[in-house]
Amino acid sequence: MKNKKNKNTVKKQIVKKSHPADYAHEMFDAIKKDKIDFLFIFIASSCFLGFGIYHLGKFFTTDEVVWLYKRYPMYWNSFLNGDWGRFENFGAQSGILQILLSGWMFFAKNTAAYDYSNFELFLFKWRLPLLIFNYLLLFIIFDRVRRLWGNRIAVTNIVFITFFPYLVGISQIFSKDTTLWSTAFISILNFYLYLKTKQYRFAIYSGLFLGLALLSKFPASILYPLYFGFIYLEYLFHDTNRSRFIHSLKAYVLSTGISMFIVFIALPPSWFDIRLLLDWTWYSKVIDHYTDYILLSMAFLSFEILALKGVISKNVNVYNFLKTWIPRILFGIFFVCLCFMAIIQLLNIEDHFEFLNRNIGAGLLIQTFPRAFFAGFRNIVKGTPLIHFIGISGFIILMLKNAMSYTHYRFFFYSMVLIMVYYLGAALSGAELSLRYQIILLPIFCLFASYFFVTIFRRRFYLYLTILFVILALEMLHVAPFYITYRNPTEFSSFINPGVNWGQGGYEIAQSVNRLQNAEEMKILSDYEGFAKFFRGAGSRYTYRQKLTENYIRQYDYLCLSSIGYRQIIRYNAMTQDFKKYYEQPLENAVSYIGNKQNYVKLVRVDS
Fold first, then answer.
1. Mean pLDDT of the chain
2. Beta-strand pair 538-541/523-526
3. What CA–CA distance (Å, rounded) separates 210 from 220?
4. Strands 558-562 and 538-541
5. Predicted structure pTM score
């Protein structure tokens, strides 16, 4: 009788608000009721768009070379000609959502026709749809967080996202990560909303945005097993309520099915070979080694609950342990690791810990387990603004003290499960988690920080939010336009790093040369992407595959050198004394430069 009553209650909840038109009415009513909150949202989202538009076409990255001249035309040519045979070279790289959003640019003009005089405008138009897409999704993020945790946390969360330099910077670039962070975060929030309300519409929205996340980049496939894990944890949290699990299982099948259908529609080769669809979803390379074990585990747990009526789960007395100690253990591990890396960064003693030393020759994707695991924490410490970092740390302390409501506690616990599974999975695969590789987690960290600041600033909330807004905005103005290469003040030697392979700084150096009268007659060799496309003379790119002699270097008038180029040349063992002396020249002697001694882009004259 109890199960039957619960089942009827669930049905009533589903019927209560199932009309899409209710969404617009709810938003309108919320705007009228909370005008100050929406004023902050409008200003913050406008700042996100403004910072993103600024400098939007004035850099060119290494990754974008492949997208612009290979994958981008490959997709559209295959689509228009119906020739999908060459599409297999696209692999499981995804990025289709980005291609679809900027698709109109393919028909606007042949990419080969752009030169230094209009390449900046082309890049601006090419990237603008991606930036606007993320800008519009900010309002959906606000609405979803508002429904879960209230207006104040939703507003603060948007402020933290808006002034997270890396999220703004990645939104400027044509990359697989550009739309991954926003679509995956909305999918997660919608799934939490389903677990909270038991309304199928949120499962549908979750599946829709999960499909868009998969079309952005394959790491979103990790949400497939995690969503099932969440509904199993819900089953345990609610004292093994079987009818609740059955309802959630239906929603899970619906959500995952919609996500796969979205990928199927946008991936025409899968119309003829269903294996390609599986390669982009359940068997993507982020989980393919574990997929069979995951599916077997899911089948066993479902069988245990549905056929055996949860006899095993009911007899395992883990509920109090699950609700109290397991979350504390997870958050405790995360907090200890985060503090450990923060102290190491502040004292600059990372070289003293052998297990943290990087295997330089192996690259980012083949590292030892300790190095790969702690790299995620190191990059959070280095790349997160100081106020965000304080908020994240304070939030973890609140979790350890269990100083929040049960509903909030539950969903934050699920978020930490996601984070730790992501970190452990990457470490087991030997992947070093840079900020880019953990982009899917950054909005969750912003949410953590938001909860902490709303909790401690309950009184005079809007005064403190205004102060927080101003401080973060000033920091963004200081970092601009090199958002994606931001380093927080714990790394004092390199507050801004324009020499990373995102191509930052090359445009500015090129403009300084273009102003010279004889620029068109000059020949300049650059050690990284981001300079030659904006230079009106003969610009060449050095690719680290040959050792440069003095005779070869003297073909050029200038060298455009960067700190990232230097590190790459050392890595490939391509440095010669003839080349090294130009890197050793002081920045003050350079024709022009951007950055500092550790991280720079500079133009030096070749010895005559």
1. 83
2. parallel
3. 7
4. unpaired
5. 0.89
